[in-house]
Write a structure and sequence with these properties.
Order of helices and strands: HHEHHHHHHHHEHHHHHEEHHHH
Number of helices: 19
Structural class: mainly alpha
GO molecular function, one term: quinol-cytochrome-c reductase activity
CATH superfamily of the largest domain: Cytochrome Bc1 Complex, Chain C
CATH class of the largest domain: Mainly Alpha
Cofactor: heme; heme b
Family: Belongs to the cytochrome b family.
Helix content: 55-70%
Strand order of the largest sheet: 1-2
Pfam families: Cytochrom_B_C (PF00032), Cytochrome_B (PF00033)
Protein name: Cytochrome b
Largest sheet: 2 strands, antiparallel
Strand content: under 5%
Shape: globular
Number of domains: 3
Number of strands: 4
Radius of gyration: 25 Å
Length: 443
């Protein structure tokens, strides 16, 4: 399916000249005509949504960089000047800030779709791995950007996260000093973070090109999770355009409505109020938390009592995603036909939400007001911490234990021979079956 012949024919002299030297138009035309499984549902629209989010973040980021001053004495004031004095600055800043949240909403749903339908399985391992690289770069970029407004949460978030690097034995301290540009967070740190935050989105864009290249080569997965034989391509696929460009376009419009609601009606709903207070190294906030999309990993960090092991667990929570194609031992891709694994997947999603909730709680808060803490030899251990550790345990259990063992032991449901079977139980071709009856037949 991915090795289809090019149907692009240059028509003008300029097109022929360009096609013989840089066939970029041919690449775009071939992508638009790429045979795509005809049973893709709306979970497959988040790829286009993510591409839009990346463009929005780069475009608004470039404009903000024109007015931002990476100086500890002026950074906070420069952000406020963007909001008050730059024409449309408040909309641009709110679009950029909320765009990060929209980006992560889309990427989490995109990854959960890939996990549910087994999109990481052969021959699509590189698609998944490059996607995980993009996800890691997104987290790094988001953290660097969170520091730039230089509010209280920005400063102390940078203090906490960079200190984690220092927990690494032997090399941690030199890396920490290099990252900060000195022994403490200061102008050098802010300049480094600003430069990297500006650079990394373009690195992400390059990785997206690799992601699409790998997708073009290996071909699309589908909800049934079966490979489409070349002799069935014409029956089981349709061109990407216009069928899925229209479908993706409709999903993008709905997503933009949600995006606009946050930008215009509740622009600060996903942020933290303390970040509207200028950074003060002498006043520690009552509760230091990252943005909501980092809370599950922050909860995993806090679940481990040892600082270094907590850092290892936090990075391992991301690193385990890279080896996922080799952890899943099932020969069936889609969890639609794996009832046991589907149950564990639903629990995994709830665990992820629970970790996000735990990451937002105070370290000494109970799970429910009135629930008791437990007196141990080393002090008080509250019920919130027990829940946090239990959820962290299941997170790693899902990948390291359940995926290999369930894949070996479960009995999946029967899988259709082609994707046309569940779409057309009575058989026949999709286009002819969907066509209306002729007047002669009606009579």
């Amino acid at each position: 399916m991915s090795d289809h012949e090019s149907t692009y024919v240059p028509k003008t002299g300029i097109e022929k000249w360009l096609d013989s030297r840089l066939p970029i138009v041919r690449f775009g035309a071939d992508y638009m005509s790429l045979p795509t499984p005809k049973n893709l549902n709306y979970w497959w629209t988040f790829g286009g949504i993510l591409a839009l989010c990346l463009v929005v973040q780069i475009a608004t980021g470039i404009i903000l960089a024109m007015h931002y001053v990476p100086n500890t004495e002026l950074a906070f004031a420069s952000v406020e000047r963007i909001m008050r004095d730059v024409n449309g600055g408040d909309i641009i800043r709110y679009t950029h800030a909320n765009g990060a949240s929209m980006f992560f909403i889309a990427v989490y749903l995109h990854m959960l779709r890939g996990l549910y339908y087994g999109s990481y399985k052969a021959p699509r391992e590189m698609i998944w791995i490059v996607g995980c690289v993009i996800f890691f770069l997104m987290i790094a970029t988001a953290f660097l950007g969170y520091v730039l407004p230089w509010g209280q949460m920005s400063f102390w978030g940078a203090e906490v996260i960079t200190n984690l690097i220092g927990a690494i034995p032997l090399v941690g301290e030199p890396i920490l000093i290099w990252l900060r540009g000195g022994p403490a967070i200061d102008n050098a740190t802010l300049n480094r973070f600003f430069s990297l935050h500006y650079l990394l989105p373009f690195v992400i864009a390059g990785c997206v090109v690799l992601h699409l290249w790998a997708l073009h080569h290996a071909g699309q997965n589908n909800p049934v999770g079966i490979l489409i034989p070349k002799d069935r391509t014409a029956k089981d696929t349709v061109p990407f355009h216009p069928y899925f460009t229209v479908k993706d376009g409709f999903a993008i419009v709905l997503f933009l409505i949600l995006f606009a609601i946050f930008v215009f009606f509740m622009p600060n709903a996903l942020g933290h109020a303390d970040n509207y207070i200028p950074a003060n190294p002498l006043q520690t906030p009552a509760h230091i938390v990252p943005e909501w999309y980092m809370l599950p990993f922050y909860a995993i960090l806090r679940a481990i009592p040892d600082k270094f092991l907590g850092v290892v667990a936090m990075f391992s929570a991301i690193g385990v995603l890279f080896i996922l194609p080799w952890l899943d031992t099932s020969k069936v891709r889609s969890m639609r036909y794996r009832p046991a694994m589907r149950t564990f997947f639903v629990i995994f999603v709830l665990v992820g939400i629970g970790l996000g909730w735990c990451g937002a709680q105070l370290p000494d808060s109970p799970v429910v007001p009135g629930m008791p803490s437990f007196q141990l030899a080393d002090g008080m251990l509250n019920s919130y911490l027990w829940l946090n550790r239990l959820l962290t345990f299941y997170y790693f259990l899902f990948f390291i234990v359940l995926m290999p063992l369930v894949g070996l032991r479960e009995t999946p449901r029967p899988i259709p021979a082609t994707i046309s079977e569940p779409v057309l139980p009575g058989g026949g071709d999709a286009m002819t079956s969907a066509a209306p009856a002729s007047p002669e037949k009606k009579g």
